[in-house]
Amino acid sequence: MDRSELTELIVNNRRRKQLSWASVAEAVGRSKEWVTAGCLGQMSFDETEAATLVELLDLPAEAAVLLTEPPYRGSLPTAVPTDPLIYRFYELVAVYGTTFKELIQEEFGDGIMSAIDFRMNIEREPDPAGDRVNISMSGKFLSYRRY
Amino acid sequence: MDRSELTELIVNNRRRKQLSWASVAEAVGRSKEWVTAGCLGQMSFDETEAATLVELLDLPAEAAVLLTEPPYRGSLPTAVPTDPLIYRFYELVAVYGTTFKELIQEEFGDGIMSAIDFRMNIEREPDPAGDRVNISMSGKFLSYRRY
Amino acid sequence: MDRSELTELIVNNRRRKQLSWASVAEAVGRSKEWVTAGCLGQMSFDETEAATLVELLDLPAEAAVLLTEPPYRGSLPTAVPTDPLIYRFYELVAVYGTTFKELIQEEFGDGIMSAIDFRMNIEREPDPAGDRVNISMSGKFLSYRRY
Amino acid sequence: MDRSELTELIVNNRRRKQLSWASVAEAVGRSKEWVTAGCLGQMSFDETEAATLVELLDLPAEAAVLLTEPPYRGSLPTAVPTDPLIYRFYELVAVYGTTFKELIQEEFGDGIMSAIDFRMNIEREPDPAGDRVNISMSGKFLSYRRY
Amino acid sequence: MDRSELTELIVNNRRRKQLSWASVAEAVGRSKEWVTAGCLGQMSFDETEAATLVELLDLPAEAAVLLTEPPYRGSLPTAVPTDPLIYRFYELVAVYGTTFKELIQEEFGDGIMSAIDFRMNIEREPDPAGDRVNISMSGKFLSYRRY
Amino acid sequence: MDRSELTELIVNNRRRKQLSWASVAEAVGRSKEWVTAGCLGQMSFDETEAATLVELLDLPAEAAVLLTEPPYRGSLPTAVPTDPLIYRFYELVAVYGTTFKELIQEEFGDGIMSAIDFRMNIEREPDPAGDRVNISMSGKFLSYRRY
Amino acid sequence: MDRSELTELIVNNRRRKQLSWASVAEAVGRSKEWVTAGCLGQMSFDETEAATLVELLDLPAEAAVLLTEPPYRGSLPTAVPTDPLIYRFYELVAVYGTTFKELIQEEFGDGIMSAIDFRMNIEREPDPAGDRVNISMSGKFLSYRRY
Amino acid sequence: MDRSELTELIVNNRRRKQLSWASVAEAVGRSKEWVTAGCLGQMSFDETEAATLVELLDLPAEAAVLLTEPPYRGSLPTAVPTDPLIYRFYELVAVYGTTFKELIQEEFGDGIMSAIDFRMNIEREPDPAGDRVNISMSGKFLSYRRY
Amino acid sequence: MDRSELTELIVNNRRRKQLSWASVAEAVGRSKEWVTAGCLGQMSFDETEAATLVELLDLPAEAAVLLTEPPYRGSLPTAVPTDPLIYRFYELVAVYGTTFKELIQEEFGDGIMSAIDFRMNIEREPDPAGDRVNISMSGKFLSYRRY
Amino acid sequence: MDRSELTELIVNNRRRKQLSWASVAEAVGRSKEWVTAGCLGQMSFDETEAATLVELLDLPAEAAVLLTEPPYRGSLPTAVPTDPLIYRFYELVAVYGTTFKELIQEEFGDGIMSAIDFRMNIEREPDPAGDRVNISMSGKFLSYRRY
């Protein structure tokens, strides 16, 4: 069993047991964003978290070790995503990429926003003109080292 | 003059006049995120906004019309961005893309977050462990129509 | 079983049972365009619709849940399609893409035609010089938000 | 002067003279869809139409011949378009491509919809829930020859 | 069984039974060019032709329906073919593509040669300096519609 | 001046002088297919032919040498052509590529059809159902050497 | 069994039987370069050669026919090879490609070196500064036909 | 002036002065293969060689330094070359790549043939069946270091 | 069994037996960098080393030969890696590539750093501001041969 | 003037003034690695450093501001580099990428080596068997945040 086979098993068992990602996250004791990413093969769990998942989702014993290893990351089958929901985020990068760059560097100087020391929150905002998806991201700023 | 030549002129004149994007935005009367994107050729302005920019940035008269036209969008020279700051956002899509999809659809059902009826805010959060870049995004949820 | 295996099963059983897409759509109670897209793994059904399909097409029980989940969309194996019928539509985008942009924006201002709040109809028009394929599309116009 | 330089000149002069595409089409005496595509370098005009355009848009004399020649078609700079409005049409092909194929072939048998013997109409449909873009396309069906 | 599995079966059984493509075509009663293309998954047969193939090549019963359906066309694994024989044809398009365009349009005006209403013949021409492959192609000319 | 600038000059002067490719070929004393390919930068001329072209098309003196040099071949801007006329030939390779391979090798054994020792003829065939483009190609068969 | 499965079988059996390519070639009675290429699925054998290979390498009976058929050529999984030994040859093409072109055409005029009527020899040259790989290639020169 | 502009100048002046590559190489005192590669921007010369080239080819003074600098190598505009002469070498890599690997490693063990400590010779071999291009390459074998 | 299946087996057995790469390397008697690369299918072992690995990792007997053969190298599924840790090294090449070139050539003249006669060491450097990854690489400099 | 034009100017003036990168770095007061990268458009300087460069390299006044701005990074014209020196580093990523990942994560857990908080040193190591290029890199380890 490799990690992508495990991801497929998690996805199937979650569907069969009718568990929401929010409830899986609650069982693990972390945010739904991070736990979902981990279950989809993008994050590594500690041993307690892995044990919880193995029990909750009826996974085989060997899954426990596999879930604690850093996975080979990258969740999409193509460089430009074809799924419309995911493509909209790629479009934001294509359209706003240079804006991200200008504004972050105007405020912080030369460097980047970390995608590693990073957290994210996705929420629903009721709105009479149509509910909105609100996403807040927070990444540590890292300055280019000069030497 | 086409829009990309105008963008280059705006970038050069802003540098020469030492104006921050925040001050350009203030003159225009909109958020710094949207105004910066527009100055970089990704959004269209109304006539008053365009006139303000022409004066503020010493642009030629013909720029006024050009700034009000919808541009051919896309701010990056390659499908996978090479600049590290911008790449980190692409990496978020690559790593978290399927997570965005699962969580938005768990909450809202089948549909997408609009990248058109969309707003964004970039801010600095002081943090003793290193300041953080905070980005909040808000997009209208659009359900797939069934027919 | 994942969604692409289910799609293959639907395609095979429909062939074996000699059902037209129009008759499948009638059983589901939606348009043939939307139902066909759904059966090919591009749309999600509600529970009643899914139950109808499971019975009509002899699908296994677990298919019922799978059909109600938003699929990872994208129906083509390559970025530029090789099948001549499908390629002709890609060719329309390549040739008429900038025309779509100019005329929609001349009429509506800056924004896009939604591909989500969208419906489509495909019909045969008899014509002595050779019958014609008529396709009508209707998508909500979405304006870029200014903020 | 080659055709792409001429296209740029047409685009600039139309902007300067503040002419809508609809009025250019009316002067030429053809539909706005076809005339716009031609002005953007995707169709060829006859001599009378070309003469009208030369006068209307202050084009140099040599443009008259150039406008009557079949252009090297293809209006987009990349295989997958980056502009969100144009991308939405590419997305329709990606999502609905196999649906187009199934339904056209269910109705007509094996063949394609012509993209050459083809006409198109783009219209605005007022709608209280937000106006809609309506596009109707009509292409001759061509059967594969058997020999 | 899908069409590509059927193609593999046809290829294997033809080899085992030591049948030439010419004899398969004769049994079907069509040209060797069209029948070979169909057997390789690029054309659809009528019911009589399909029945002939099923018997001649020991195919399972379900193949009969599959052979009458329009296949997803495209016979090559990469956009630029790697096999030298097939590459030479791609090279002809790369080298002579603009010549095809100039000469067809000089003779016919603006339009294309159909690849659907099309037939082809491949023959051997004995030549003391080395035999030659002669290919003749005939496609209906289609004019761009003006509207 | 390099070869692509010379090609552009030839194309412009031919247009200005209203010469057909057939008449250019007649002046050169070769087929219209080969002469057109050469004028478009895909073949090299001998000195007499080059001198004829220089005079006929008002080319500068240095063009004479340039026309006799083997050019860097390849006439298309993208690997998959976007122009519909040229694309149809690429589609023939995609659809019929494996058929070319099977039939040529059934007749000749293992080898290729030369694209170098090659000639081609493009003609119009009147047909009441719509005139046809007839193309005949003849290439020397080359066997793989065994050693 | 298709040709790539046969190639895998040959590779495995040769390893198991500890045969060098040179000894396989000797058994077949051809050069080691051509026989190795053929065993790796790039050349076709005659019936006697195929029979020898079937016996020598314990191949199943059906392999005999398969080895005599022209394979779909192309031995590498990516357009730019990743294996360093093979990449160095690609690098030679990238760096020396235009040199090959200039020198061959200076000597022979306009044409190509055949890769079909071609033979190759790979040898070891002892050298105190480090042994050298010597490769000699010989391909027939083919002139472009003028017509 | 950068190196690619210098290459263009060298190519043009060599043509104007009617010098063969062989005679340029003789003047420089190195092989025609290496000198041609250098003149085409792929190798660096020493100061004496550079001075010879500057005088022989009427280059401006600043060329002398530029010719002694290591260039950014890579002489082809696309990853898969379109020119048929150069493509044939790419085809050799595609078809014989794995053969190169097997035979070099059978003889030498694990390592590569250097493309840096490398020399090459291109010659014409008269042959009644058509003259042949003979290319001999010699590269130092480099073993993978084990540590 | 081919090499990639063997790699998968090694990865799984190492996990099951809870062995660190450092301890595997110690058993083999080589550096952890080289042994890990070899276990991941990028280097070839000698017979003693292979035997050690077969015993240590419970590999089948046939693995012993396979481990001594030069593998087809290249450990990543895409040309631009998606895993963030590995991407950072690609980013270094993208950002510092021209710097590597300038500084190595300023010091050594025209040539390359060998990636074959190469060794590498990865170590942890404790640092109060956050521990650091230290990588030292050493490759033999190879001069371009002049001939 | 944009940054890439400035880079070209720096490269030309450095050549004309015969300054080594080491001496430029000494004048700036930073390492040769970082200064070279900055001069090649990959790093931003502070105002004093920029002023030094303007004077040392005869740059125009406006260069001073441009040198202090974060550039759009990425120094290579293609995703896979064609220059052999730079390619060797890409090859290291292709071959050793998974080894980097395994060993860094074995030592540090799940995270990455920063390419931002990063420094590098390139040195020559004399060696009787051929001098060696020694490169040492040091990047801060960043752990994935769990939340």
From TrEMBL, chains A, B, C, D, E, F, G, H, I, J:
<feature type="active site">
    <location>
        <position position="114"/>
    </location>
</feature>
<feature type="domain" description="Cyanate lyase C-terminal">
    <location>
        <begin position="75"/>
        <end position="147"/>
    </location>
</feature>
<dbReference type="GO" id="GO:0003677">
    <property type="term" value="F:DNA binding"/>
</dbReference>
<dbReference type="InterPro" id="IPR003712">
    <property type="entry name" value="Cyanate_lyase_C"/>
</dbReference>
<dbReference type="Pfam" id="PF21291">
    <property type="entry name" value="CYNS_N"/>
</dbReference>
<dbReference type="InterPro" id="IPR036581">
    <property type="entry name" value="Cyanate_lyase_C_sf"/>
</dbReference>
<dbReference type="InterPro" id="IPR008076">
    <property type="entry name" value="Cyanase"/>
</dbReference>
<dbReference type="InterPro" id="IPR048564">
    <property type="entry name" value="CYNS_N"/>
</dbReference>
<dbReference type="InterPro" id="IPR010982">
    <property type="entry name" value="Lambda_DNA-bd_dom_sf"/>
</dbReference>
<comment type="similarity">
    <text>Belongs to the cyanase family.</text>
</comment>
<keyword id="KW-0456">Lyase</keyword>
<protein>
    <recommendedName>
        <fullName>Cyanate hydratase</fullName>
        <ecNumber>4.2.1.104</ecNumber>
    </recommendedName>
</protein>
<feature type="active site">
    <location>
        <position position="88"/>
    </location>
</feature>
<dbReference type="GO" id="GO:0008824">
    <property type="term" value="F:cyanate hydratase activity"/>
</dbReference>
<comment type="function">
    <text>Catalyzes the reaction of cyanate with bicarbonate to produce ammonia and carbon dioxide.</text>
</comment>
<dbReference type="Pfam" id="PF02560">
    <property type="entry name" value="Cyanate_lyase"/>
</dbReference>
<feature type="active site">
    <location>
        <position position="91"/>
    </location>
</feature>
